[in-house]
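Appendix B, Record 12. Input sequence as logged:
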Amino acid sequence: MHALSRLTPHIIFPRLFPPPNFLLSFFLRFYSSYQGIKYISKVARDEDDWGNPATAAITTVAPLLLSATFRRNVPYAVLLIGMDVFSEATASTPSSTTSTTS
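Logged structural output:
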């Protein structure tokens, strides 16, 4: 095996491309925390509205802003939260194509 074939992006640019296992574990822990806090908020408030994802987003993104290492991952975390909110909004809205008229 040639020495250059072992060079991967996280070896060449360690600050730009951290090892994949770090990013994977980071986002797994972040998204699990977000979903857990959102569920606890839903159960505690006994309501299913926009307050639950907002509470979870604030409590999980705010600690990321304190560290320079995690701060660069905040846009991706916000993107995950946005996809979750969009998915819930479209799933709970009745589709106009399935309306039945008698």
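The chain has a mean pLDDT of 81.
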